[in-house]
Known about the structure:
Blueprint (H helix, E strand, L loop, with lengths): L1 E4 L3 E4 L5 E3 L12 E6 L5 E6 L6 E5 L1 H4 L9 H7 L6 E7 L8 E2 L5 E4 L4 E4 L11 E2 L2 H6 L6
Pfam family, one: FliW
Function: Acts as an anti-CsrA protein, binds CsrA and prevents it from repressing translation of its target genes, one of which is flagellin. Binds to flagellin and participates in the assembly of the flagellum.
Organism: Paenibacillus pseudetheri
Amino acid sequence: MNIETLSWGKLEVNEEQVYHFPKGLPGFDEETDFALIAMAETPFWYLQSIKNKGLSFLLGDPFVFYPSYEFELLNEEAEELGIDNEVIVRCVITLKEQVELSTINLLAPIVLNPVGHSGKQIVLHKAPYHTKHSLLQEQLVIDGKDGG
C-alpha cells in the first residue's frame, strides 16, 4: 500500500505496519488508521496517518530512555485491544530545536497489539509519570554531565 507523507513523500508500507485505533488518538478522533514506520537502527518510529499526510507522531521506545519504566495495563484495555501475550509500547516524543530539551510523554503511552494490529493511547491515572520527561536525562547522568 502506498501512502503520502510530508517527511518522505510517497511511501510504501505493508499491512503488517498498519494499526487501527478504533477511537483515534486524543485530539484526532477521526484518524483511526496509522502506519508504524521504524527508523532503522534507532529507538525511534513514526506513527503516520494513512489518510492525512500532515499527521504523524515521532515515537520512542520508553524502555531505552527509562529502563525502569513500567505500568499495569488494565484488563479492560488489554481486552479492548485483543492483547494476549504480545504488546508493543511506544511513547510520543516532542523534539525541540535544542535536542537536549526534547521530551518523551511517559504518562500516555501508545499501546499496540502486533498480532491484531490495533492500538490505543492510554492515559495512566495512577502513575508517577508526566507528559514531559527529559529525553536525555538518563544519558546525561550516565555521561557524568548531571551538573554535579
